From TrEMBL:
Pfam families (alphabetical): CoA_transf_3 (PF02515)
Protein name per the record: L-carnitine dehydratase/bile acid-inducible protein F
Biological source species: Reticulomyxa filosa
InterPro entries, per database record: CoA-transferase_III (IPR050509), CoA-Trfase_fam_III (IPR003673), CoA-Trfase_III_dom3_sf (IPR044855), CoA-Trfase_III_dom_1_sf (IPR023606)
Family recorded in the similarity comment: Belongs to the CoA-transferase III family.
Transmembrane segments: none
PANTHER family on file: ALPHA-METHYLACYL-COA RACEMASE, SUCCINYL-COA--D-CITRAMALATE COA-TRANSFERASE
Renumbered residue ranges of the record's region Disordered: 376-397
Domain of life the protein comes from: Eukaryota
GO terms for MF: catalytic activity
Gene3D superfamilies assigned to the protein according to its UniProt record, in alphabetical order: Crotonobetainyl-coa:carnitine coa-transferase, domain 1, formyl-coa transferase, domain 3
Lineage: Eukaryota, Sar, Rhizaria, Retaria, Foraminifera
């Protein structure tokens, strides 16, 4: 689908590389522009592989190419500008101001390369109170920098305040849902628009991960925005566990849980029948505060009386929105649905053993959730070695 599209990727770690992995799995040629010596920091993450990189790196860099350039070096900077002439998309995730300091101001780049689509991913975006550009003030002092970590993004977007206990989720929601998916969606939209435009105009995309996280809250934020006296405090929102019918409960066996998602009356009634508690039908559906707490307490005791497998067998006879919680290792190893959907990509790595012998090993990483009859090209090649494609790419400039 994107087989004739070339993407230059200046990003590292998670949001940007995941964005370009989506584009690569749609057929785009993705060239990672990496700093000589270290490259993408994700290469240094835990879980070392025999090729000297990591499973984390391979999981979001499959099928990409790697070119090493130091953009602070005049010769490399000139080479990068030549490379831009061949590109359809440029994606970067520096702090605001870094591109300008590198004399790669996106507005000027768009004038020079009018068909180029430039995507900028940052914690707070390129404008606003928390967007402090990284540059030198008069006198040589650095301007104050505001932390753009996932935790800070969660706090400022309001997502953290929705949780029953204010803590970070086990997944990088800000990076992926707040950054990568909005970035990929807008890049593909711009490519489509450019194809329809006789002038083939490019565009500049400003992706704020805080904006993306804020947009994940249409229900609670619309309540707060339009009901001034309404306060959604920690745990007091329907979809974060504040109502008994939409909660996770512990089972009798160790590290086993059951999840209820019974917001519709028919599912809640079926659940009450399954656990033989018809008296709860009129109490627990949308009960909050003290009423909800008493129902939760009763359900907590009930679900601890049986193992997760026993509950699975009981609920198999009812049309209830209830499921046993799978642990991560159980999902990969046992879940027949995930196996049927081929959610893992097998990769073959080549490296050296401790005694210097060339060896191969198999690596399994999650694939991107792209499922179309035509146009998907899931990459099965491992991530590139640092600078692996210098000769191939740069010799053609």
């Amino acid at each position: 689908m994107l087989s004739n599209i070339r993407v230059l990727d200046l990003t590292r770690l998670l949001p940007g590389p995941f964005t370009t992995q989506l584009l690569a799995d749609l057929g785009a040629e993705v060239i990672k522009i990496e700093e000589p010596g270290f490259g993408d920091y994700c290469r240094l993450a835990p879980t070392q592989c025999i090729d000297g990189t990591t499973s984390s790196f391979h999981s979001i860099n499959r099928g990409k190419k790697s070119v090493t350039l130091d953009l602070k070096n005049k010769k490399d900077w000139t080479t990068f500008k030549k490379l831009l002439k061949t590109a359809d998309v440029l994606i970067e995730s520096f702090r605001p101001g870094v591109m300008e300091n590198l004399k790669l101001n996106p507005e000027q780049l768009l004038q020079e390369f009018p068909s180029l689509i430039i995507c900028r991913i940052s914690g707070y975006g390129q404008t606003g109170h928390y967007c402090i550009h990284t540059n030198i003030e008069k006198g040589g002092r650095m301007k104050k920098k505001i932390c753009q970590s996932q935790k800070m993004i969660f706090i400022r977007s309001g997502l953290l305040g929705l949780m029953e206990k204010p803590d970070l989720p086990p997944l990088p929601v800000a990076d992926l849902c707040g950054g990568a998916y909005p970035a990929a969606f807008q890049i593909v939209s711009c490519l489509f628009g450019r194809e329809k435009d006789p002038l083939r105009k490019g565009n500049i995309i400003d992706v704020s991960m805080t904006d993306g996280c804020y947009a994940l809250m249409p229900f609670p934020q619309s309540i707060v925005n339009n009901t001034p006296k309404h306060n959604i405090s920690f745990g007091k929102y329907m979809l974060n566990g504040s109502v008994p019918c939409y909660q996770v409960y512990e089972c009798k066996d160790k590290n086993a849980y059951i999840s209820l998602g019974c917001l519709e009356p028919k599912f809640w009634y079926q659940t009450c029948d399954a656990i033989q508690c018809p008296h709860l039908k009129s109490k627990g559906l949308l009960a909050m505060d003290n009423g909800g707490d008493s129902v939760k307490a009763e359900l907590t005791k009930i679900f601890k009386t049986k193992t997760s497998q026993e509950w699975r067998e009981i609920f198999s006879k009812y049309d209830a929105c209830v499921e046993i919680v799978n642990l991560s290792e159980q999902v990969s190893a046992n879940d027949p649905q995930l196996k049927a959907r081929n959610l893992d990509v097998p990769l073959t790595l080549v490296g050296k053993s401790k005694d210097g012998q060339t060896v191969q090993t198999q690596l399994k990483v999650p694939r991107t959730p792209l499922n179309m009859k035509h146009g998907v090209d899931i990459q099965t090649k491992p991530g590139p070695k640092l600078g692996e494609h210098n000769q191939e790419i740069l010799s053609k400039l």
